Amino acid sequence: MKEEIKYDPTLFSVILHYLDATTKEMTSTLEHSARGSIISLIRDFSCSLYTAETDMLYLEEGLPVHTLACRENIKACTKWYKEAGEEIRDGDYILNNDPYLGNTHKGDHSIFTPVYYKGELMFWSMVLAHVTDTGSAQGGMSPNASTIWEDGVSFPGIKIFENEKENNPNIHMYLSNLRYPESQKGDLYAISGAARIGKRRLLSLCDEYGPDLVRYYTKAIMDYADKRISEEISEWPDGTYYGEAWGDSDGRGTWDIKVCCKLTIEGDMLTIDWSDSDPQVKGSINSSIAALKANSCNPILCAVDPAIPHNEGCLRHINIIAPEGLVVHAKWPASLAQATYNIGDAVVEAVQKALAHAIPERVTGGWGRQPSDFYCGYDRRSKHPSPYEASHYYGSAGGGAGRGNDGWPAIHTACSLGAMKTEAIEIHEINYPGIIEKHEVLADCEGYGRWNGGPAIDFRMRLPEGHKAACESPGGGFENPCAGINGGHAGSGGCRGFENHETGRRTFYRGMGIIKMDDSQTAFYIAPSGGGWGSPLDRDIKKVRDDARDEFISVHTAKAVYGVVLDPATYEIDHQSTRELRKKLKTREKREIVTPDKPGIANYVEKVYKPGDEVIYLEPLPTSHKDWIKGIVQEMKTIGLD
Amino acid sequence: MKYRIGIDIGGTFTDFLVLDELGNIHGSKEPSSEKPEEAVYKGLGRAAKELGLTSTELLGNTELFIHGTTIATNTLVSKTGPKVGLMCTKGHRDTLYLRDCHRWDIFNIKLPHPDPFIPRYLRIPVEERILYDGSVFIPLNEDGVREACKKFKQWGVEAVAVCLLHSITNPVHENKVKQIVKEEMPGVNVNISSNVLPIVREWQRSAATVFNVYIYPGLSAYLSDMEGHLKSMGLKVPLLIMQNIGGCAHVKEVLEKPIYCTGSGPTAGPVAGILFGDEEEEQNVITGDMGGTSFDTSLVRNGQLSYTPDLRISNIPFGVSAVDVNTIGAGGGSIAWVDSGGLLKIGPQSAGSHPGPACYNVGGVEPTVTDADLILGYLNPDYFWGGEMKIYPELAEKAIRDKIAKPLGISVADAAHGIFEIVNRNMAAAISVITIEKGIDPRGYALIAGGGAGPIHAGKIAQLLGMHKIIIPSQAAVFCSLGMCVTDIRHEYVKTFYTDSQHMDINRINEIYRDLETEAVKTLESEGIHPENIMLTRAVDAKYPAQFYELTAPVPSRVLTKNDVPRLCDAYHDVHDEKYAYCMRESPVAFLQWRLTAIGLTKKYKRPELAYAGEDPNAAQKGIRKTYFEEERRFIETPIYDPSALGNGMVIHGPAMIETATTNVVIYPEQKLRVSKYGNYVITR
Lengths: 642, 685
Description:
The structure holds 2 protein chains of 2 kinds. Chain A is of the alpha+beta class. Chain A contains 15 helices and 24 strands.
């Protein structure tokens, strides 16, 4: 045995920072060299590092639903190789997109590579990216899929590079299954390149310190995270807490799908039991086990000091129970096309709601769900029309408010926590035919609170003359608003639809599906706001005044919701009336730790509905909505697939 | 005798440098004061006195006076500018608020949303719309503009910024808005985005326009005041201001584009780097300037400055392609601390000069990098700032013992060495951000170290990165102000015109360059530059059609013909190959923004060469002090040298130290230092 290593706090810090710099460099490589807009501009990808034993060593910068799920992915793939008697050798790059083999959903393509140092396996470097097309019949997100085959083609742990050289038959097989082989080839190389950067940096680390020291400190880094999170969780009150949240619909006529989190805190251990959730559904929003585990851990890591390194040391303290056959852990061959966000966002929210009963000051209001989507067609602006598929993530939901902070606007989705980006409108319009008429905050739509949820967004887009497009709508959060916490109000919910330029007539679409639009219409999306935190009657009066002056809220809302009386012309505060009004309103106020406690309560369409408007259901109707529909909807169509 | 004067105002000190026509350098420092100009006038008096002149005589004989100012950055950071109103396209009122919708510290629920800089009620949309190709989709509603002006007046708006979508492709609406605002709000300064910074991406362009109009009044008052005062003191030449694009410009030009004045001081570092690199025959250098509060580093490649397309202030990028200076909170005053999990960290908090490091005994009780340097013996308690300031090792020891050594259960020396090593690692990481993370291997580069604390740490930083050579200028402590004295006059122009290699309108591009070059030459000539000293360089931002991020490639400086199209493409393929390690020669190339850099060359100085004095440095040794070296894991007797007795050619083997009045040069074991013919210290392995 070699001489014993003496712990050196300096070297510990050095190696920790080195890992951080490595994942950042991997991220920068992919962001700047990729071709797909969803990778390069939207930044829907994540990089992480693993130990030889496939324990998560470092993640940063990425979407929690990716990075926290990659560990399931790499564990499942390496297990398959072992059981099949196959070997993963130095210089091999393994591509996996199979959600029944540890991946999130088929749209996420991950590539990982082993890091061998002088013949010894030391680490794994991994990159997971959401690609433009996955070879399904419906394109990118397959909103109406009902089996795993409809989600797209499966690439279950195949070798893309061997010994650092292309495996051309496999690359050929991969590209021949995809709609945009040219740009997706570039992305395949860019994803592998980022994984290669991780490998190179880890090898330099071993060169500098030797493998023994590196292994010693990577273990120390996990122990450090273990110790820190253990201290924090130990301070939380022991007990069992419940949280429920709902997915809007599954694309096949099941509505208000329940996920139920039973959270038990015991000493420094957390157990999250999903057994009481709804059974798996026919449609595309079922969760894979990898996405479930990742989304379950997300609110826990938000509740502890963010400086704790996010690795296996933390995750050891979170135990997840989820029997197969539930919407949160579907059985083969169910479709898992929307596993990451739609139902995944509800999973995040159910954990938040449960946690709120234990440690409300460390939990935020609910984070929005991704409502806007993709559109595709032919760009006919030049003489030579060319096909495109564009993600327009502008109609992006608000983040939850926390104690001391208003929610961020436009964070896309709870499962990403705002790690994605949105491209400049000028860049979008240069590259794609859509004309973006509006991308603004919608007033009076916040999850009101002492701290407000991120506001709702009003997004409107039309097409130039002679253009048609198909819009995929796999998102959610329209019918089930983001949760309010500790007296904060729930978010707004939202809607989507088309408005005819000539008649001004609006068509609202509910449910998931593919909708066709042409140049006679403007597509509109109201992206839901995030949930509030604390009672709006406790919001700083000056902040309420500023919100009204900035037209985030009306003077009426300032008075009715916040109890702040303002002069409508000058926005001056009437302090005397405000004091009296707040006192009066407080006596009537019912403060809930979490709200809502029942499904389908957002009624945004009902609120804005005008006679003459049309409502179209993209899937069979929910029974709960039928009464309302009978009363006022003049025209109603159902484009069900069954 | 003719002089050049460079003045750099920093957070802790204002640096002065006077360069005479023989190439002699006279540097000094003055503590920065609340009113920056006070330190300037005081320091000028002191500098003149050291040369045996009066201020009037010195200024009367000054041929170039260059100033790096912090006013622009401070105005933005401390928000002391005028009340600005922003007019934007209807439907896009929240561009500054929504940003790129990116949260970077994802698990931190306390991360506050960045301030949009202009509150929503002062962002007023006007009805109009121009499309990506410049066509008018919705005509400008002029009455709406007048209504907006009315609202601005009600809110007491003092300056107006205008940024409309796609205005860079067709500025007709912006021009009209400007004209109406001028009518409705006489006397109010109006900036339109297509003038300020004609680049694609509305968020950055809006921010640039807002920043520009916001910085203007303060900068204008300060510079006019200073220019007037210097004139009355006897300065006969116009005042020049250092810009973040790596060159200086006259006050009049600078006030047209105040956004180029942010980060004005540190930009001079790499300019000085080029000079010292030339002297030591190094074309590839990395500058590292470690002062009291921060470490500024920049890359010089093939004798050229490096640029970043994404300069940010208060987390707002504003589209300026500026000299890429990476700044981190690592200076002598950076505070060391231990977190609740037992992790040793340095900065970003700094003790500055008040309350200062613990050893200063002026109120600081937190252990800093300077305290660690003192404990390790890298600073001489009896010769700090040339003996002008007393420092207290016992206070440094107490701070490190109580705050670091005890919580970690290690000795004071180990704790001090831990601080020393981590701050070195942080600085090495800052250098790797501008090198390794961009695919550049720093091992082929020489490190040029400046600033008060730089020469102590340079040897270790270079070792960590495997850099082969360190150059420490004899006036390392006033490094940036020297850069200012040798800088050229520089202006940047950009015109957006989308085209691609298959449909190239060569005549239009020739027209663009004819217009830009006429304007550039006119400006430089008005600044007193002779035509033979004007250098014009063209470049274009290009990409493959499917890509989203551009790279800048060179464009030949002559009338272009059809035959130049493949040349332009090749230039782009080459740049791409170098940066991303691949290119697609068969692919067409799209071109977006046509750039022109106009440089007015100032006269070059060559510093005098020193007479060869032989290799033996023994005569310059002035004493011995116990100093800690990690290689030995203990304090060892270390020879100390007097810089005034060192001569060209002398070689000192590490471990050793040179003590100057403003900094110490540490030579680590297995390193050796040679004094060059220009008096620079060159350290190699």
